[in-house]
């Protein structure tokens, strides 16, 4: 059954990649970026997985999670290292090239700021993952320390970004509120994707669909920075998902989830389409809200709304398979992406 599920997924996966590249066939650069990043990562991942197993950089499963997840213990983690590192290195190479062309300074700033987001939040996730694997437990950075580091990374990004909505706001108080909102937006979605990364292929698959939306929107709005880094990231995560779908051969770890979540938020800011992420990223929003509701209600009443939070664990305990949760989540994300595209891109 697992072989059939995996085979079906790969047929759907390849079909989606082909259809998406056909949609953007008018932009050869984006196709080249996706293809290059995908090919490099897809070829390297088998060796990377063996390396992580040899180094014993493996996942420890939470004791309070579903009992059947214990079988995942020993699966290599920190898979996000490759799908973050390859886009960063290729992005730097293209940035150097752009310095000698007629690309506008704001676009260069955009590329640098998006690259910084991947690097900074990836580094925070790396520290967290490293603490987990070195101590052979599921607890890494303390929540307070992680939050402080995320705030600092978000602050630096907002000052680096060419799109700074708080500068266009009237009055010091409104500017401050807009700045604070943008900061919370980045940190919030970084953690939202992290919460979603609880079963094989869920976070990576939904991220891929959301990324495709922002790449197309960037093409329509001629945003070189999001086209470049977004396309490289799309290709790299596509390769990762091939090895991450159930049964996963590798997990992205906090290194991957924190960085891609922050990237999606940053992309929505740079494209002046902040609110779009609430809709195309509805799965991330739902996972986060379920966790907040569970903690809040339990704190005040001692009762639980869900069998377990976040939402995907509740669905598992309700009898849903991981594959069913994935396909339903992909479908919802795709529908919301299409509807949001009709509203934003066609107008």
Protein architecture, described:
The chain is mainly alpha-helical. The protein contains 13 helices and no strands. It has helices spanning 2-23, 28-54, 80-98, 105-135, 143-160, 172-196, 202-220, 224-244, 253-270, 276-280, 282-301, 311-317, 322-344. Helix 4 (105-135) runs antiparallel to helix 9 (253-270), helix 6 crosses helix 11 and helix 7 (202-220) packs parallel to helix 9 (253-270). The longest helix has 31 residues, at 105-135. It is globular. The N and C termini lie far apart (44 Å). The relative contact order is 0.15. The mean pLDDT is 85.
Number of strands: 0
The share of residues in extended strands comes to: under 5%
Secondary structural class: mainly alpha
Cα distance spanning the termini: 44 Å
Count of alpha/pi helices: 13
SSE ordering:
HHHHHHHHHHHHH
Please outline the major beta sheet. Answer: none
Oligomer: single chain
Rough outline: globular
State Rg. Answer: 19 Å
Helical proportion? over 70%
| Low-pLDDT sequence parts | none
Average residue-wise pLDDT: 85
List the helices and strands and how they pair.
Elements: H1 2-23, H2 28-54, H3 80-98, H4 105-135, H5 143-160, H6 172-196, H7 202-220, H8 224-244, H9 253-270, H10 276-280, H11 282-301, H12 311-317, H13 322-344
Helix pairs in contact: 2-3, 2-8, 3-4, 3-8, 3-9, 4-5, 4-8, 4-9, 5-6, 6-9, 6-11, 7-8, 7-9, 7-13
Annotation keywords:
single chain; 347 residues; mainly alpha; 13 helices; 0% strand; globular
Short description:
The chain is mostly helical and 347 residues long. The chain is built from 13 helices and no strands.
């Amino acid at each position: 059954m697992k072989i059939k599920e995996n085979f079906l997924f790969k047929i759907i996966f390849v079909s989606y990649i082909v259809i998406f590249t056909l949609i953007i066939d008018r932009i050869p650069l984006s196709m080249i970026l996706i293809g290059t990043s995908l090919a490099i990562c897809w070829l390297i991942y088998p060796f990377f997985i063996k390396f992580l197993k040899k180094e014993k950089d493996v996942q420890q499963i939470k004791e309070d999670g579903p009992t059947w997840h214990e079988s995942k213990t020993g699966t290599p983690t920190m898979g996000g290292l490759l799908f973050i590192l390859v886009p960063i290195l290729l992005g730097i190479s293209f940035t150097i090239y752009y310095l000698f062309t007629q690309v506008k300074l704001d676009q260069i700033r955009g590329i640098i700021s998006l690259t910084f987001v991947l690097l900074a939040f990836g580094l925070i996730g790396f520290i967290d993952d490293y603490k987990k694997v070195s101590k052979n437990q599921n607890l890494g950075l303390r929540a307070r320390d992680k939050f402080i580091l995320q705030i600092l990374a978000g602050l630096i990004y907002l000052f680096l970004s060419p799109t700074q909505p708080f500068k266009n706001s009237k009055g010091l108080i409104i500017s401050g509120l807009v700045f604070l909102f943008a900061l919370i937006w980045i940190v919030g979605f970084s953690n939202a994707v992290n919460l979603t990364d609880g079963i094989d292929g869920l976070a990576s698959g939904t991220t891929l669909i959301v990324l495709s939306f922002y790449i197309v929107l960037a093409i329509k709005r001629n945003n070189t920075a999001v086209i470049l880094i977004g396309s490289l990231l799309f290709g790299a995560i596509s390769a990762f998902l091939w090895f991450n779908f159930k049964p996963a051969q590798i997990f992205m770890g906090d290194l991957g989830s924190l960085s891609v979540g922050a990237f999606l938020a940053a992309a929505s800011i740079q494209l002046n389409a902040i609110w779009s992420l609430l809709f195309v990223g509805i799965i991330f929003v739902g996972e986060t809200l379920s966790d907040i509701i569970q903690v809040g209600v339990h704190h005040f009443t001692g009762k639980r709304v869900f069998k377990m939070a976040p939402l995907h664990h509740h669905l598992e305990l309700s009898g849903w398979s991981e594959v069913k949760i994935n396909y339903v989540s992909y479908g919802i994300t795709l529908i919301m992406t299409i509807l949001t595209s009709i509203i934003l891109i066609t107008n």
